[in-house]
């Protein structure tokens, strides 16, 4: 029993990172209807930027972290301006493929700059475990979980109350109407990429503090798809819940497969089996807008 | 005057002919003869690249039927190729003759494609892309973990193919075999496109609602598109298995699916010629980079150590640049060039 509880807890931590990445994905999808296959690579680039500033330039963590966020914001803006804006109105497959092309460009840039081996962040938090629900848990895990919740709360408030957040929601709801009300659609599109790159970078930094990072980190982006489909492609709450659910589900399924069936590596595929089932039964997810045309 | 200058169709049969002009017929024949005659004078490295091109052409043509003509995005094509490859490998190990194993691998791949296509058929656009992505990852997992059949991460050795006791055991022989298969597949796909089936595919791509109103059964034709496309993908995989003689799960990863999609985008969606151009481009690109980096090594040491990363980057960059500046692909550019010279001194 304790084994499964442990699985659930580590699933929640990984899931909270999925949630962050899914948040970036959903923000881009909501505002621009672009499906971003490079979301995992944004996580990776953010993580490596922070790693480079802290370790290679020797800056303290509280300086390098905001600098990483600023860098990611610029990166998101550049990506939107250079590759996505010319493709507005093009068919789905072009937009998907341009983000896939982007992901392999980002990956190769990271490999050229930092190589392929695993890099470890310096210890920011104490190593002594904290006791949660009777189980010892590393403080990094707790911090990761709390930071994700904090970010989600911040973004919920941002979308609910700030002018920019309301403008972004309005654009997502009806582009033509919001444009005629004086909202600059172009800057909203750029903004959504900035925000997505930023939250992904936060996810990357957290991951770097837990596991270390390497150039394969982008694979994490694939896990976003089950999470957002489960939660609903255009729902922030769905991203949060979907990420956590997928994190826990894949960890527990992996544990069960190892324990009961003796199958290794089930983690990589469990989320996608769930994904196929969700697509068959409830394709718009838990909180998504029902707008899928069935054949 | 025996014939008018240019193409003036007076019947539907003329318009839907595979090679509408005598010049085109002659130049295609010439090209084919050159393909058959020249390879024995090439070195084996070049012949091996040509083999890879032939195999890639089959895969690209098959994906182009599904994605380019029928509008169904598939991110799982690499895995369907893998199903064909593993089937061929396992059947060859059991002593099934190649001529039987080849269609059998196609059929099993078609089965896998239709099975994973089945839930996908209710979905469109991005949802379809994601569900085929799931198919890709699930099949990859099966390749890796069904060790009693696929050999898992240790891989599976495959013998060169044999037809009536004649073994295709070097690059040159393999080239002729794959050339024959690729030509048949390309011709077959071109013929499918001008048949009732192909027109139904195109109508679904262009406007699914209108297609349904004129009596095209969406479910049936989408399923057929998935089946036909994965059948050809399986054939391509079977040839790949026999050519590389070694199968391991990572060959059929998401990267392969993406490179097939890149082929049809760079070549031109919905056209058989486009798939061929794209297959040539994407297969030659890494080889060209190899050659370039080898010659650049002299003045830029350390170039070859970064080659892997460089290949991915150049691939991604080519994909992005094509999507931004040449979204209709090489086939379209080639048509524009031809049109330019047809009217040469006059702009219109």
Automatic annotation (TrEMBL), chain A:
<dbReference type="InterPro" id="IPR052157">
    <property type="entry name" value="BCAA_transport_permease"/>
</dbReference>
<dbReference type="Pfam" id="PF02653">
    <property type="entry name" value="BPD_transp_2"/>
</dbReference>
<feature type="transmembrane region" description="Helical">
    <location>
        <begin position="95"/>
        <end position="118"/>
    </location>
</feature>
<feature type="transmembrane region" description="Helical">
    <location>
        <begin position="188"/>
        <end position="207"/>
    </location>
</feature>
<feature type="transmembrane region" description="Helical">
    <location>
        <begin position="138"/>
        <end position="159"/>
    </location>
</feature>
<dbReference type="InterPro" id="IPR001851">
    <property type="entry name" value="ABC_transp_permease"/>
</dbReference>
<keyword id="KW-0812">Transmembrane</keyword>
<keyword id="KW-0472">Membrane</keyword>
<dbReference type="GO" id="GO:0006865">
    <property type="term" value="P:amino acid transport"/>
</dbReference>
<feature type="transmembrane region" description="Helical">
    <location>
        <begin position="227"/>
        <end position="248"/>
    </location>
</feature>
<comment type="similarity">
    <text>Belongs to the binding-protein-dependent transport system permease family. LivHM subfamily.</text>
</comment>
<keyword id="KW-0029">Amino-acid transport</keyword>
<keyword id="KW-1133">Transmembrane helix</keyword>
<keyword id="KW-0813">Transport</keyword>
<feature type="transmembrane region" description="Helical">
    <location>
        <begin position="260"/>
        <end position="281"/>
    </location>
</feature>
<protein>
    <submittedName>
        <fullName>High-affinity branched-chain amino acid transport system permease protein LivH</fullName>
    </submittedName>
</protein>
<feature type="transmembrane region" description="Helical">
    <location>
        <begin position="6"/>
        <end position="29"/>
    </location>
</feature>
<keyword id="KW-1003">Cell membrane</keyword>
<feature type="transmembrane region" description="Helical">
    <location>
        <begin position="41"/>
        <end position="59"/>
    </location>
</feature>
<dbReference type="GO" id="GO:0022857">
    <property type="term" value="F:transmembrane transporter activity"/>
</dbReference>
<dbReference type="GO" id="GO:0005886">
    <property type="term" value="C:plasma membrane"/>
</dbReference>
Automatic annotation (TrEMBL), chain B:
<feature type="transmembrane region" description="Helical">
    <location>
        <begin position="98"/>
        <end position="118"/>
    </location>
</feature>
<feature type="transmembrane region" description="Helical">
    <location>
        <begin position="73"/>
        <end position="92"/>
    </location>
</feature>
<dbReference type="InterPro" id="IPR001851">
    <property type="entry name" value="ABC_transp_permease"/>
</dbReference>
<dbReference type="Pfam" id="PF02653">
    <property type="entry name" value="BPD_transp_2"/>
</dbReference>
<keyword id="KW-1003">Cell membrane</keyword>
<dbReference type="InterPro" id="IPR043428">
    <property type="entry name" value="LivM-like"/>
</dbReference>
<protein>
    <recommendedName>
        <fullName>ABC-type branched-chain amino acid transport system, permease component</fullName>
    </recommendedName>
</protein>
<feature type="transmembrane region" description="Helical">
    <location>
        <begin position="125"/>
        <end position="144"/>
    </location>
</feature>
<feature type="transmembrane region" description="Helical">
    <location>
        <begin position="225"/>
        <end position="246"/>
    </location>
</feature>
<keyword id="KW-1133">Transmembrane helix</keyword>
<dbReference type="GO" id="GO:0005886">
    <property type="term" value="C:plasma membrane"/>
</dbReference>
<dbReference type="GO" id="GO:0015658">
    <property type="term" value="F:branched-chain amino acid transmembrane transporter activity"/>
</dbReference>
<keyword id="KW-0812">Transmembrane</keyword>
<feature type="transmembrane region" description="Helical">
    <location>
        <begin position="308"/>
        <end position="325"/>
    </location>
</feature>
<keyword id="KW-0472">Membrane</keyword>
<feature type="transmembrane region" description="Helical">
    <location>
        <begin position="47"/>
        <end position="66"/>
    </location>
</feature>
<feature type="transmembrane region" description="Helical">
    <location>
        <begin position="174"/>
        <end position="193"/>
    </location>
</feature>
